[in-house]
Amino acid sequence: MISTITAKIINILPDKFGTYISKKAVDKYLEKYANINIEGSENLKGIKTPTIFICNHLSNSDGLVLDKALKEIDPTFVAGVKLSNNAVTSIGLNVIKTTNIKPETSDKEGLKKIITLVNQGESLLIFPEGTRSRVGSLIEAKKGIFLIARMTGAPIVPIGLYGTEKLLPINKEGDMSAETFNYADVYIKIGKQFEFPKREKEQDKKEYEDFATKYIMKKIGELLPENYRGVYK
Description:
The protein contains nine helices and seven strands; from the N terminus they run ααββαβααβαβαβαβα.
C-alpha cells in the first residue's frame, strides 16, 4: 500500500491534483493485484433510481473494486469517519464519492445528510455490517441500514463480494496503514433490485426492524458462497 509519508504528501496537494494522483495509484494497484470478476451486471439495466446498494464488507479495498463495478451508476459510498482520519485510507476516499457517518453512535447529522442525498436523487452504497468482518463471513447488520431504507423508501440492490479479504487483508493489530495488497481473484455478484419490506399490522416496532433487517441481509447472503454467509445462512 502507499506509504504514510507519500499519502500525507498527496493529501496536501490541491484537490484536483490530489484526486488525479490518488486515482492513478489505486488503478495501478488494482490492475496489478486484482483479477476482478463481475456477475449480474444485467441487473443494473433499467433499475429505479435513486437506489440503495448493500454489500458485505471484508476489506478496505471493497469500495475501490465496487466503485469500478458500479461506475455507470456512480453511487455515493457511506463511509466511517475514521477512514478520513487515516492518511493512507483517505487516498481511497479521494477516488470514490463518500459521505461520512460515525459508527456505533446515533449520528443524527450524518444520517440526515444521507437521507437528503437520496431525496435529491443520489444512489448510495452501504455496508450494513458497519465494519469489516474479522471472521470472513457476514456479521450482524447495524441499525443504520434499517433506518436509511425505511426513511428513504428507496429500492435496494444487493451485492455479494468475496476475495477482497485476500486482496487487502485486515491488519491483525488494527493498523490500516500497514495493510498491503496481494494477488487475488475478486468476485462481485450483483443481485436484482427489490423493495424494502412493508410493516405488517401485527408486527410491533422491534419485530418489524428485526424481520426487515434479516430479510435484506439474506438477499446479500444468497449471492455469496455458503461459507461467507455467516449469521445470515
